[in-house]
Design a protein that fits this description.
Blueprint: E1 2-3, E2 6-14, H1 22-33, H2 37-71, E3 75-81, H3 95-99, E4 107-109, E5 112-114, E6 117-121, E7 125-132, E8 143-149, H4 151-159, H5 163-171, H6 178-192
Parallel strand pairs: 2-3
Antiparallel strand pairs: 1-2, 3-6, 4-5, 7-8
Helix pairs in contact: 1-2, 5-6
Length: 196
């Protein structure tokens, strides 16, 4: 996304689900009426095994996202369904921690209530007005925040507004779409032929 002379990269994620089914939820809710330490142990072991597979997949996915972010020449906003709680492997700074209130649950079904959806961003941004919506058209609640760049960051970006440098950042970025990279290289040709 181009804002003024600055470019932002937005990454939308949906990392591996824990795949907790209605049957799994039923097992945990049945403990309330028919509790025994054996049943609790059985349900706990079953869910732990099931979730450990998802944790490992998410860890790999989080590494891939982190790699894309670290290689980005632009400021980054990364948001979506991370399917992990704030203390987990994939968690980093997010808008809720900066301006949210309360517990911030984004997933609430039966006994399961977690904050697993995030809006994260480059350190150049500042967040305000984080909100969790009440509209529930999926098993997650929507979240939103206002993000602002500091005036200093905008002025610095404007002072570096060089079309050739901008095009070069695109055609040399291995993460960019190949067609976009080729178009950027073609658009830069007049600068090398002295016609720009």
């Amino acid at each position: 996304i181009v804002i003024g002379s600055d470019t932002l990269r937005v990454i939308n994620n949906h990392l591996e689900s824990n795949r907790i089914t209605s049957s799994d939820m039923k097992q945990t809710s049945e403990l309330k009426n028919d509790f025994s330490s054996e049943k609790l142990t059985g349900v706990t072991k079953y869910l732990s095994r099931k979730m450990s597979v998802a944790y490992k997949v998410r860890a790999q996915q989080a590494n891939e996202v982190a790699n894309v972010i670290s290689k980005s020449p632009y400021k980054v906003i990364s948001c979506g369904d991370y399917n992990d709680v704030p203390t987990s492997y994939t968690y980093t700074k997010d808008a809720f921690r900066e301006t949210g209130r309360g517990l911030g649950w984004t997933y609430a079904k039966s006994f399961y209530r977690f904050r697993i959806d995030y809006i994260m961003y480059d350190k150049s941004f500042h967040s305000a007005n984080y909100k969790r919506g009440n509209l529930k058209t999926s098993d997650h609640y929507p979240i939103q925040t206002d993000l602002y760049l500091s005036k200093k960051d905008i002025e610095t970006a404007d002072s570096r507004a060089d079309p050739l440098k901008f095009l070069e950042e695109i055609w040399t970025d291995p993460v960019e779409d190949m067609k976009l990279r080729m178009d950027a290289a073609k658009a830069a040709l007049p600068y090398f032929n002295g016609k720009a």
